[in-house]
Amino acid sequence: MEELVGLREGSSGSPVSLRELWGPCPRVRRAIRGGLEWLKQKVFRVGEDWYFLMTLGVLMALISYTMNFAIGRVVRAHKWLYREIGDSHLLRYLSWTVYPVALVSFSSGFSQSITPFSGGSGIPELKTMLTGVVLEDYLDIKNFGAKVAGLTCTLAAGSTIFLGKVGPFVHLSVMIAAYLGRVHTKAIGESENKSKQNEMLVVAAAVGVATVFAAPFSGILFSIEVMSSHFSVWDYWRGFFAATCGAFMFRLLSVFNSEQETITSLYKTNFRVDVPFDLPEIFFFVALGAICGIVSCAYLFCQRTFLGFVKTNQLISKLLATSKPLYAALAALILASITYPPGVGRFLASRLSMKQHLDSLFDNHSWALMTRNSSPPWPKELDPQNLWFEWYHPRFTIFGTLAFFLVMKFWMLILATTIPIPAGYFMPIFIFGAGIGRLIGEALALAFPEGIVAGGVTNPIMPGGYALAGAAAFSGAVTHTISTALLAFELTGQIVHALPVLMAVLAANAIAQSCQPSFYDGTIIVKKLPYLPWIRGRKISSHRVIVEHFMNCAITTLAKDAPLEEVARVVTSTDLAKYFLVESTESQILVGTVGREELVQALRAEPSSWTPGHPCLRDLLAGGCPIEPVTLQLSPETSLHQAHNLFELLKLQSLPVTSLGRAVGSVSWVELKKAISSLTNPPAPK
Amino acid sequence: MEELVGLREGSSGSPVSLRELWGPCPRVRRAIRGGLEWLKQKVFRVGEDWYFLMTLGVLMALISYTMNFAIGRVVRAHKWLYREIGDSHLLRYLSWTVYPVALVSFSSGFSQSITPFSGGSGIPELKTMLTGVVLEDYLDIKNFGAKVAGLTCTLAAGSTIFLGKVGPFVHLSVMIAAYLGRVHTKAIGESENKSKQNEMLVVAAAVGVATVFAAPFSGILFSIEVMSSHFSVWDYWRGFFAATCGAFMFRLLSVFNSEQETITSLYKTNFRVDVPFDLPEIFFFVALGAICGIVSCAYLFCQRTFLGFVKTNQLISKLLATSKPLYAALAALILASITYPPGVGRFLASRLSMKQHLDSLFDNHSWALMTRNSSPPWPKELDPQNLWFEWYHPRFTIFGTLAFFLVMKFWMLILATTIPIPAGYFMPIFIFGAGIGRLIGEALALAFPEGIVAGGVTNPIMPGGYALAGAAAFSGAVTHTISTALLAFELTGQIVHALPVLMAVLAANAIAQSCQPSFYDGTIIVKKLPYLPWIRGRKISSHRVIVEHFMNCAITTLAKDAPLEEVARVVTSTDLAKYFLVESTESQILVGTVGREELVQALRAEPSSWTPGHPCLRDLLAGGCPIEPVTLQLSPETSLHQAHNLFELLKLQSLPVTSLGRAVGSVSWVELKKAISSLTNPPAPK
Questions:
Q1: CB under 8 Å to B606, separation ≥6 — which residues?
Q2: CA atoms within 13 A of residue A567's CA, in its CB half-sphere
Q3: Which of B232, B486, B537 is nearest residue A230 as measured by Cβ atoms?
Q4: Which of A123, A190, A246, B247 could bond to B214 as cystine, CB 3.0-4.6 Å?
Q5: CBS domain: from which residue to which, for each copy (chains A, B) (predicted)?
Q6: What single DSSP character describes residue A345?
């Protein structure tokens, strides 16, 4: 194009060509061409980064949609098989259980054989990475295949295994972003840049959430709340852009595929709009939030304990170490047997898919009122028009089934989280919360059949609204986030319950956050990943703690005038990755840091200088051993809060402490953690 | 209570009292009492801060509601007067104009006489404060009365003056928070703490927005986007809590006052839910966003230019300096004369209040289609059932009135922003955007009367949806925020247009942010408030800039061994607030900073030491002149990004740069600004 323009402009100087004569108004045309050129430059200047974000969003949407499509086919095949296999109980049982058992064990075996990182949701690991810890190979593109294939199998097992998609999708999105970033930096030939990578990590996480739920707002907010403790408005904007591209593409595909007429939300509800709830119901919503908070504490505690048990129990840990697919198959068999519809599964609405679970729980009618006088029979086949029939049993009524569902799913979910397969744990928690809300909502609807405020027009209670609030509150409490409230609105396409849902989520969070670490933090603790705790409570007294009180004073420094024997002794006797380099043994003025490996290399390369004449470290450094400059240093008077902020914002691992230029100590996560824990559990007074 | 419990427990040791015998199961009762005590402690432990936030939210809601109530009465009185005064044009004109003129000039005179800080929205100043600049007295509680009274008058002038409420409410909220904070710290007897104050500032801003719009989600997000460039999830949670309390209380009051049956959104819409828009309409939504972006650039440019003109023009600036109420009255007279309904106001829908403006623009019918065949007469009185009649004129049709409205309001709004009264500028911009959207939506509805996708069931285009998108996009572009999209949903209680509105806002922001500073930044520039620019574009090359390239090397240091004459000479010849104290003239090792005032005081206090014998600075310091420790220092190798992050996150003003402990320079906002501007406009290559 550039060349072409050049040719033409060149030709205007040369004898007038036929083409030049032909076209009218050469000046206008040149002006238009110039304008287009300017626009092109302008767009490309803004672009670059934005194109990258758009690509990421569109790619993730394609993957998400394709995966959904494939899963839909597999699930349909399973349903068909189960329906057509005849009335023999054994055959039916086998057709119900073999499918998920095979899928889950394949998922576990396949993904674990490629990479051990592919199990679980991946969010805890990403959270750790965002604080600056480098987990080698965790974002390698070769994990991608393992995760995609494994996740597809997991999800194809459907509501039997009852696992979700969000966590792995966040991981997938970050992997793709990291890969695109590497390609990009290679293409423009620049060196990789750490802070740019971190920016991208947050954005990619938002895209992951947004392409699963088609919810850009809550996607970005949820990923921020879960992933980081500080964030910049700049990242938030970029995240919005990428998430919107992803969500749009994801929904567009389903319109093109004639699943929908236009772009709408994923779990559309039909709540009454004019008076969605009577004012006094706010109280019940808050109470529901509190209940969800308490249940979430129990869930988090049991989940963490059981995860710990699985790690420490000899039998299970041996099984997991030697044959993960077997463990997965056993767990899947238990889960599938329980959910076998003609058996116990009948009381668990186990014929519903996870989407149908949500759709039915968000139903705007009250089942309790509808079944008060008439009792529908338990249908032999799933009735897509009346999904809620699945929740009803003539003897147990809907309260019995809902309560049984909650009790059973509580431990089944905990069991499912221990299976080493790629799977998300958000969606099951969301549905579980919806179940809690529905149960309470139905109870209220039965208690107040005319609505709470009696008057001319009665507004009966909608249990669906409680299910919505319960879903948001429980998932918010388990993950320690508030944006689940927004997610509930984006998922359902209605925002009429804005304040009650938000208040329920706040109540649930208040309880959960003060009693238990979040689901992701809990996993970080159990998996023993490094993390930096918050300074909770923000008591005034915490502002008085300064670095001097908690820094590590026992640092190893290398003086420039130290003899090489001394250097060799230090290097061999300690195993730090970096040493502080000081000007001289006497002055101890900090110059920079020297990597251990470089030192060892330099020492090996110069065996000749080991002869007497006392060569010192300075000679070694002059010989090519690189010194890294210290870009930031603390003083003993820096406050704990300032230091903590610095570590969080700049993703630091450790910082030197200098006083009058002299290296007097260092602060790393270890010291910070100790200082923070001694704030909450103050040591005995001295 | 504590005492009472103590007494009782004491009594259990003493001979058994009558009461003790009387009550059954003393052990159970003690256990219950203990449990309650534990709960109390637990709640109070979590509490403290939360109570404070709740108080803030509830107080602001009360103020907001009371103000709305008072304004409603004043406006009703004005309407009554205008209606009852008879048909004489002169009397009607007078009754229409005198009211707002009197209110606005009183607002200006009253508020300015108490404090000059009360004018304008206050958001630019708060934004500056959040970056760490101290604006003396800006948050003093005495401004409160001025702002409340002034704002009430401004808003009572109604849609004639066409100004809003958000900005001043943010300011009010922050004032109250600062006051409560001071009371709180005094009550518990602790020293004030800067970082706690900053936390509170962000939260209070969120409460301000939330209590105006009853929109907690967008309240917190909008205030974060407008106010800061980094924020912590901790502040965001606290903000949510406070904003929810505020929004709940605000809506609760209106239910108690029988204005509504239950808690709903402020500007309820009735958009079609099943197919709110056809897929191809997405394109028009994005185009609308782009148009809003372009118009917003024009608006921002004109607004800034006119504000500059008012400041520099001799006549106007003299008028503003000597008699602000007169200027206010003149401007109000112009605005009121234009909006006089039987005159030009007829084409401006000027009989509608601002709320009615929005309600009518978000109407879900297409006016163009409704007036295509029949033309309703212009009603003599406002018809509350058919507000949109106001927008219709038989000769000009609705397109004429809408276009005229936009053209006139464009400059009227700019004129209104120069009046020195407490007023918000968000709401008028929001309505203006809705007007743009409505105009385009009506045009589309007329162009495609059957809807875009022809088929079995046609879905006619809803211009109300475009009005919603236009409002969000234009206000988002002017303020450089994305959360206006969410605000649009929270205000209307419907979220069916989620993706199209978000895409329109993104398009508008892309254009506005790349061409013009935001409304608030523009005001900061015109008012010459200090600010720290962003590092835009985040080019890779910017990561290579290090502190050494741009630091201020010409620093004034005071050595401990400097003779006092030297110190006195330095203090008198320079006017820095702080001097770097170094160990000795030779070593230049940084020890800390000394305040100029303390130095001067110490120098004055010791005139005896001016006698020969060469006393040096060290003696002065030993004599009680305090040294402030340096808690953080940069190295010449620190990157620009790191330094910028540090300044933003820790709200710093300046930092020393040390190399090997020696003070070699300093970095302050001035240097950072220069470095950032040279990134975007690179200097000629050396």
A1: B620, B623
A2: 33
A3: B232
A4: B247
A5: 547-604
A6: G
Answer whether residue B681 shows pLDDT above 90. Answer: no
In this structure, are residues B431 and B471 in contact, taking their beta carbons and an 8 Å threshold?
A: yes
Distance (Å, whole) CA B502 – CA A247: 11
Encoded amino acid at B327, one letter: Y
User: What residues have CB less than 8 Å from A245, skipping those under 6 apart?
Assistant: A53, A54, A56, A57, A58, A61
User: How far is Cα B357 from Cα A389, in angstroms, rounded to an integer?
Assistant: 47
Among A217, A237, A482, beta carbon nearest to B240? A482
Identify which of B203, B222, B216 has the alpha carbon closest to the alpha carbon of residue B265.
B216
Q: C-alpha B20: how far from its chain's center?
A: 59
To which residue do tokens 């338990």 refer?
A: A378
- Interval B186-214: pLDDT, tens: 776 655 566 667 778 888 999 999 999 99
Long-range contacts of B71-74 (CB under 8 A, 24+ apart): B71/B152, B71/B155, B71/B156, B74/B103, B74/B156
- Token pair for residue B441? 């939506």
| B629–chain A Cβ distance below 8 A for any pair | yes
| Numbers of helices and strands, H then E, in chain A | 28, 8
The fraction of chain B above a pLDDT of 70, given in percent, is: 91
Residue B498, judged by CB atoms within 10 A of its CB (0-12, 13-18, 19+), counts as buried
Distance of CA A242 to the CA centre of its chain: 16
Report A:479-518 residues touching B (Cβ under 8 A). Answer: 482, 485-486, 489-490, 493-496, 498-500, 502-503, 506, 509-510, 514
B231 touches chain A (CB under 8 A): yes
How far is residue A507's CA from residue A477's CA, in Å, rounded to a whole number? 9
Which residues, 6 or more positions from A248, have their beta carbon under 8 angstroms from its beta carbon? A57, A61, A263, B282, B499, B503
The answer to whether A541 and A675 have CB atoms below 8 angstroms apart is no
* B282 in A contact zone (CB under 8 Å): yes
- List chain B residues with CB under 8 Å of A264: 276, 496
Q: What pLDDT is stored for residue B6 in this prediction?
A: 42
Put residue B651 in one of left, alpha, beta given phi > 0 → left and psi -120 to 50 → alpha. Answer: left
**Beta-carbon count within 10 A of A346 CB:** 18
pLDDT at site B12: 44
> Using CB atoms and an 8 Å cut-off, which of residues 552-611 of chain A contact chain B?
583, 589-591
With CB atoms and an 8 Å threshold, state whether B540 touches A635. Answer: no
Q: Does B187 touch chain A (CB under 8 A)?
A: no
The pair phi, psi for residue A374, each rounded to 5°, is: -115, 145
Q: Name, in order, each residue with C-beta under 8 angstroms of A339's C-beta and a sequence gap of 6 or more.
A: A96, A159, A160, A345, A348, A350
Per-residue DSSP letter, B546: B
Chain A interface includes B237 (CB < 8 A): yes
> Count of A–B CB contacts within 8 Å?
229
- What chain A residue is nearest to B503 in terms of C-alpha separation? A244
